[in-house]
Amino acid sequence: MSRLISLRFKKIHLVLLFGCVFLVWNFITFYTLSSKPRPMNTDKEIQLVNQLQALEKAMSKQAEDNRKILSGLQHLKDTNSTNSNMNLTNSNKEGVLPILMIACDRTSVSRALDKLLEYRPSASKFPIIVSQDCGHAETAEVIHKYVVSHNITHLKQPDLSNINLAWPQKKFVGYYKISRHYKWALDQIFVTMKYMAAIIVEDDLDVSPDFFEYFSATYPILQSDPNLWCVSAWNDNGKEGMVSDEAELLYRTDFFPGLGWMIERKLWLELRNTWPEAFWDDWMRHPAQRKGRECIRPEICRTSTFGRKGVSKGLYFDKHLKYIKLNTVFVPFTKIDLSYLEKNKYDATFTKMVYSAPLLSPEEVRNGAQPTSSVVRVEYTTKDSFKRIAALLGIMDDFKAGVPRAAYRGVVSFMFRGRRVFLTPPSSWSGYDTSWT
Ligand SMILES: *[C@@H]1O[C@H](CO)[C@@H](O)[C@H](O)[C@H]1NC(C)=O
Ligand SMILES: *[C@@H]1O[C@H](CO)[C@@H](O)[C@H](O)[C@H]1NC(C)=O
Ligand SMILES: *[C@@H]1O[C@H](CO)[C@@H](O)[C@H](O)[C@H]1NC(C)=O
């Protein structure tokens, strides 16, 4: 009974609603037709036009935002399904360390390949895979010659589409393309080919005679130490005269150096989910990605760059990169005891060695005070004092996410006029300040 009544009420409700709408519509039509167009006062007109334009802008922004959200969701779905399809059991590629070379439009890729092939001890242990972006035919031809003569693999990044960026970002389009290429290429190596680790180089790097030996020997350390996430061939302060001749000397560093670096598959599966659209190297250096993890780096670089042409290089090449010393002697790393790099041993020994060195001012170091001390320490307490001392003694003065280049626990180690200098924070140091940029 009560249901019937309520149904009836609903019907009446609906009829009333339609009636109202009809009346209002009639009223509006009548009003519109009967009212003569009145000359509008120009201020109001301008105001109206402005409002319309603002509305149009807001609507197109909304449409753009929706498109972004949609593509973000699509991306999430794609990575999600890749992740769930991924077979995380070890492949039969254990012990193989492919070299992934990132290439684009430089035919000088042949120089980089020649050096790798010259020093490569085994083709099966170190397969070379060149991933080429940019679709540059001449470079593709050069790479193809190596496919024929040396059985290297030539991958071509399929997405050569433009990346549309609004004005302030537009000039960075090269960095967006690089990031897109790295993502694709690393997916080929780790997701499609399922390699367990890889060494990543670029098409403008020369390598040292012990490049392969270095990565072979450090690979087991990378695998077993959860505090390590990379091994790099690069020392950011590795200029001629700023490194010792201890070619076998290796370090731990909190700074991700890049420029010839090895990572494991498991790290890529972690990073790929949030891989950035641009500036991937600085993104990796951010605490959200680094998570306190460290890299191994050498005293003397195992790569050096010969490329002046590139997205970022130019000035940076002339100022720094061309002075980098490339190691020339073969160090038999696989036959050397590298257990000093293990975190427990390393941290204790390193801290003791650094903080027991006599403390000098940077001016005293410059003037050669205390000539009998072969190891000295200089202290910085603020960002500005670091930068001042770095300029005085000639090391890199920049920070990424608060970490000075090549630093470990805030300490930068380098040679100055033949002696070891540790530029250090006070021994009470408790962590990096990410506001130092
Ligand atoms: C991702 O996968 C999980 C299960 O594997 C599922 O619950 C979730 O809805 C997926 N997310 C998206 C965005 O597809
Ligand atoms: C995963 O890969 C391993 C070796 O590559 C294979 O033996 C295994 O059957 C695969 N598992 C699944 C669920 O595909
Ligand atoms: C060529 O390289 C591929 C993979 O890198 C390898 O599987 C194959 O055996 C190589 N072929 C020869 C003839 O060496």
UniProtKB/TrEMBL annotation:
Its job: Initiates complex N-linked carbohydrate formation. Essential for the conversion of high-mannose to hybrid and complex N-glycans.
Membrane topology: Single-pass type II membrane protein
Keywords, in A-Z order: Cytoplasm, Disulfide bond, Glycosyltransferase, Golgi apparatus, Manganese, Membrane, Metal-binding, Signal-anchor, Transferase, Transmembrane, Transmembrane helix
Organism: Candidula unifasciata
GO biological process: one example: protein N-linked glycosylation
GO cellular component annotations of the record: Golgi membrane; perinuclear region of cytoplasm
Gene3D superfamilies attached to this UniProt entry: N-Acetylglucosaminyltransferase I, Domain 2, Spore Coat Polysaccharide Biosynthesis Protein SpsA, Chain A
SUPFAM superfamilies: Nucleotide-diphospho-sugar transferases
Catalytic function, reaction form: N(4)-(alpha-D-Man-(1->3)-[alpha-D-Man-(1->3)-[alpha-D-Man-(1->6)]-alpha-D-Man-(1->6)]-beta-D-Man-(1->4)-beta-D-GlcNAc-(1->4)-beta-D-GlcNAc)-L-asparaginyl-[protein] (N-glucan mannose isomer 5A1,2) + UDP-N-acetyl-alpha-D-glucosamine = N(4)-{beta-D-GlcNAc-(1->2)-alpha-D-Man-(1->3)-[alpha-D-Man-(1->3)-[alpha-D-Man-(1->6)]-alpha-D-Man-(1->6)]-beta-D-Man-(1->4)-beta-D-GlcNAc-(1->4)-beta-D-GlcNAc}-L-asparaginyl-[protein] + UDP + H(+)
Family, similarity comment: Belongs to the glycosyltransferase 13 family.
Protein name: Alpha-1,3-mannosyl-glycoprotein 2-beta-N-acetylglucosaminyltransferase
Pathway linked to the protein: Protein modification; protein glycosylation
Record localization: Cytoplasm, Perinuclear region; Golgi apparatus membrane
Cofactor notes: The cofactor is mostly bound to the substrate.
One GO MF term attached to the UniProt entry: manganese ion binding
EC number: 2.4.1.101
